[in-house]
Amino acid sequence: MFTAEDITLETWTVTGLSTRVASLGQGPVALCIHGWPECWFTWRQQMVALANVGYRAIAPDMPGFGETMGLPAIEDFNVARICEFMEGLTRQAGGEKPVLLIGHDWGAINCWQFTLRHPQRVSRLVNMSVPLHPIGDRPPTALLHEHFGDNFFYQLYFQEPGVAEAEFDADPQGILRALYCSPDTPRDPPVLGRSIAEGGGWIGRLGKPREQPDWLTDEALAYYVNAYRRSGFAGGINYYRNLDENWRLMQPYRDAQITCPVLFLVGSADSVIRGASEEQLMRRMAPRIPDLQIVMLPGIGHWVQSEACAQVNAALVSFAAQASARDHA
């Protein structure tokens, strides 16, 4: 049986980028795409579970994260370039065979977009936390400005180059500890309010956690902090700076369906879904995803694969087994 200690870290060249790739196991490829602010390390337990049921689990640091090169300019972190990188990964890992694709947070966004743009490269899709949203009639930042008005919202804060990364680079442990929390993690009151007019950044608006959740060990936090001390935060934030460009580039896929089998995993207390029920999520996504399963985990928040590791692994293994059963039917 594989353990996390068996994971190997390799350096690949993918679409010209020096890329750190974690690898474990042999067999068909399961490609795991992390979100923000994370790196390959977030998938270590899922890699073990997948390798132990016959998959070759691959988890890269995405461009601009960890030990993978960033892209030359902010505008390069757009959906077309990131999907080119992901296609290069799938071919380098598995040749012409389609992969089991797994994403969380920004990784889920990347995986939704990749599966729409390159459906032949994906045999099955597992996404976590961020549902498939419709492609609207107006650019996302315009909608966000309209919705939040004079109130702070982190995705709008991220739009000004140099600002958010300066805050987080100066205190990587502060931002990561404030974000890596469960829904019930006790916090001190925020030192900044909601109004943009107050000035200041995001850390002061989150409230300092009084304790770490059980799923976040000191060793894991140190791994992430060291990763961001090395890479800085700018690369990851640049994905957010392409929201409007991605909206433009995805217009041809507004009505496209994802026809491969899809599993959507989410915690009921994940703020991303704003209290939506499993039934509501199914109604929203099913018209564009005919073969959709949803697993909602009660009381679990955003960091679902860490907060509910055993449940997520069981759902992943069950979904992967359906592929094997179909292949041998």
Work out the helix count.
14
CATH class: Alpha Beta
Overall strand count: 8
The secondary-structure class comes to alpha/beta
- What's the end-to-end separation, in Å? 27 Å
CATH topology: Rossmann fold
- The total domain count is 1
Helix content: 25-40%
User: What ranges have pLDDT less than 50 throughout 5 or more consecutive residues?
Assistant: none
Order of helices and strands: EEEHEHEHEHHHHHHHHEHEHH
Structure overview:
- The chain has 329 residues and is an alpha/beta fold.
- The chain has a single domain, classed as Rossmann fold (3-Layer(aba) Sandwich).
- It has 14 helices and eight strands.
- It has an eight-stranded mixed β-sheet with strand order 1-2-4-3-5-6-7-8, with helices on both faces.
- A hairpin with a 2-residue loop joins strand 1 and strand 2.
- Helix 1 (44-51) runs parallel beside helix 14 and helix 6 (163-170) crosses helix 7 (172-179).
- It is globular and about 55 Å long.
- The mean pLDDT is 97.
